[in-house]
Design a protein that fits this description.
- Helix content is 65%, strand content 0%.
- The mean pLDDT is 90.
- The chain has 358 residues and is mainly α.
- The protein has one domain.
C-alpha cells in the first residue's frame, strides 16, 4: 500500500525512490511487524485472559505441563495480524506470489482459529476432527498449487541441492507435490509447538533463511551466478519473510519461558503454511527439509512412534513428539528449547551452503 502510494511520487520527490528497493521495504516490514507485536501483545494477552481463553492440557502429557493449564492461547492471532498488515503496507500488491502466500497464511490461520476456538469452548484438547482439518488444509493448498501452475512464468521443475544438473519437470504433478510441501510444513510446525518458544525460534531462523532465498531467486543476475532457479517476482516475498521474522521476534517476547501466551493452531498452522508456500515459490522445496529440520524431526518422531506402536505394540520414544521424550528423560524445558534453536541455526547454515555447493 505504501509502495503504491509513495513510490509514484519519486518523479517529484527523489527521496521516495527508495521505496523501489526490496531491501528497504523488507527492513521496514520487519520493524513494522515488531512494533505491532509489542504494542498489541499486552492488550491481546489481557483480553484473552479476561475472556478465559486458556490452554487445555492433555492429561497424558508430561506432569510439568499441568501448571500451564489456563495460560492464554490463540496468541497466533497476533502473529497473523503482524504478518498480514506489514505485508500489505510494504509489499508490491500487484505481485501474485505475495497474494498466494497470504492466501495460504490466512487460510491455514482460519482453520487453526476454528480448531482453537472449539478447544476453548469445549474445554478439551480435541478441537475439530483431524479428517475435517486435513480436508480444509488440503483444499487451501490445492488452490495455491493450481494458481501457481496456471501462472505462465512459474516453473514446475524440481531443484535438488548439491546437484545443479538434476531438475526434473513434474508438470501437472507439481500441484500435488506443492500440496504435500505446504500441508506437511503446516502440520510439522504445529507438532513442534509444544514448549514455550520451541516452535517460534526455529521459525524465525527459517523465515530469515527464506528471506535470503527469495531475494536471490528474484534477482536474475544473482540467481544465474549461484546457479539456482530464477523466479521473476519472487524477490517480493522477502518483504513477507521480513514480516514473519518481525512477528516471530515480537511473539517470542511474550512466548519465551515461562510463556505468557501460547500461539495455538492459529499461529503454528499459518506460519508453517506460509513457510511451505514460500519454499515452493522460490524453488527451494527440498532445502526446506534442511532448513526446517527441527520441524521434520518432530513430525517423523510422531510418525515412527505411531507406526511402531500399531505394528509391534512398542514405543520408540518415551513420548512423541520428540521434545516430550527429552522432557521425560529429565531435561529442563529451557535446555530443550535452546538446544533445538542451536540445531536450527546449524541447519540454516548448512542450507545456505547449498547455494555454492552445487
Amino acid at each position: 500500500m505504501l509502495y503504491h502510494l509513495l513510490y509514484p511520487l519519486h518523479n517529484d520527490f527523489s527521496v521516495f525512490y527508495i521505496f523501489r528497493f526490496i531491501t528497504f521495504r523488507t527492513i521496514y516490514a520487519t520493524i513494522t511487524s515488531l512494533v505491532i507485536s509489542f504494542i498489541l501483545g499486552p492488550w491481546l494477552i489481557n483480553k484473552l485472559s479476561n475472556l478465559q481463553i486458556g490452554q487445555s492440557i492433555r492429561k497424558l502429557g508430561p506432569e510439568s505441563h499441568f501448571k500451564k493449564e489456563g495460560t492464554p492461547t490463540m496468541g497466533g492471532t497476533l502473529i497473523l495480524f503482524s504478518i498480514v498488515l506489514p505485508t500489505l503496507l510494504w509489499a508490491d500488491l500487484t505481485n501474485i506470489y505475495v497474494w498466494v502466500t497470504l492466501l495460504v497464511t490466512v487460510g491455514f490461520g482460519v482453520v487453526g482459529f476454528v480448531d482453537d476456538f472449539r478447544k476453548v469452548r469445549l474445554r478439551n484438547c480435541d478441537g475439530i476432527s483431524a479428517r475435517c482439518k486435513m480436508f480444509w488444509l488440503l483444499l487451501i493448498a490445492l488452490a495455491a498449487g493450481v494458481i501457481l501452475y496456471a501462472y505462465p512464468p512459474f516453473q514446475t521443475t524440481l531443484a535438488f541441492p548439491f546437484f545443479k544438473g538434476v531438475r526434473p519437470d513434474l508438470a501437472i504433478f507439481y500441484v500435488p507435490f506443492a500440496m504435500l510441501v505446504i500441508v506437511g510444513s503446516g502440520n510439522a510446525v504445529n507438532l513442534t509447538d509444544g514448549l514455550d518458544g520451541l516452535a517460534i525460534g526455529p521459525m524465525i531462523i527459517a523465515s530469515g533463511t527464506y528471506l535470503l532465498f527469495a531475494y536471490l531467486a528474484g534477482n536474475a543476475n544473482l540467481s544465474e551466478y549461484l546457479q539456482i532457479s530464477s523466479v521473476q517476482g519472487a524477490g517480493e516475498l522477502s518483504v513477507l519473510c521480513g514480516a514473519m521474522v518481525g512477528a516471530g521476534l515480537g511473539f517470542l517476547w511474550f512466548n519465551t519461558y515461562p510463556a505468557q501466551v501460547f500461539m495455538g493452531d492459529v499461529g503454528s498452522l499459518s506460519l508453517g503454511g506460509a513457510l511451505g508456500t514460500i519454499a515452493v515459490i522460490t524453488k527451494q522445496e527440498i532445502v526446506l527439509i534442511i532448513v526446517g529440520g527441527i520441524f521434520v524431526l518432530e513430525a517423523l518422531s510422531v510418525i515412527f512412534q505411531v507406526t511402531s506402536f500399531r505394528l509391534y505394540g512398542r514405543r520408540i520414544f518415551r513420548m512423541a513428539p520428540i521434545h516430550h521424550h527429552f522432557e521425560l528423560k529429565g531435561w529442563p524445558e529451557p535446555k530443550i528449547i535452546v538446544r533445538f534453536w542451536i540445531i536450527s541455526i546449524i541447519l540454516a547454515l548448512v542450507a545456505l551452503s547449498t547455494l555454492k555447493l552445487r
